[in-house]
Design brief:
Shape: globular
CATH topology of the largest domain: OB fold (Dihydrolipoamide Acetyltransferase, E2P)
Strand order of the largest sheet: 6-5-4-7-8
Order of helices and strands: HEEEEEEEE
CATH class of the largest domain: Mainly Beta
Radius of gyration: 16 Å
Largest sheet: 5 strands, antiparallel
Structural class: mainly beta
Number of strands: 8
Number of helices: 1
Helix content: under 10%
Length: 124
């Protein structure tokens, strides 16, 4: 694949795979897709499948004027190490808490597939 890394990432999502990049040299995973590892500049990169498990690092509720529904914006630390921005679905925006275990899934967004999260455990 000679496409830009963000296009490769999108193609993986379209194929139903949650993939992140890893440096072969350092073994470090990172996100957002790029042509070189942040910090080292290493270009010896590979795509690996993420396990999909993560923990909410930060959350905020975006309030909207009715009838539009409020939603959350979260930073999630993936089990593999990278932190990414997304949202948690399946619970009220106010129910999303720092430290909450979440599980990634691919959802259909307005412009194609997107990565979102659901609570790893059923809400109480």
């Amino acid at each position: 694949m000679n496409d830009a890394p963000d296009k490769q990432f999108r193609r993986h999502l379209e194929a139903g795979r949650i993939m992140i990049q890893r440096s072969r040299e350092t073994g470090r995973c990172f996100f957002y897709p790029r042509v070189a590892e942040p910090g080292t500049g290493s270009t010896d990169l590979e795509w690996i499948e993420a396990c999909g498990e993560g923990t909410v690092y930060s959350t905020t509720v975006v309030r909207q004027r009715p009838p539009a529904a409020d939603y959350n914006v979260v930073l999630v630390d993936l089990a593999e190490g990278p932190r990414l921005m997304s949202r948690v679905e399946g619970v009220a925006p106010e129910a999303v808490k720092i430290g909450m275990a979440v599980r990634a899934r691919i959802a259909e967004g307005e412009d194609g597939p997107i990565l979102v999260f659901d609570p790893a455990e059923a809400p109480e």
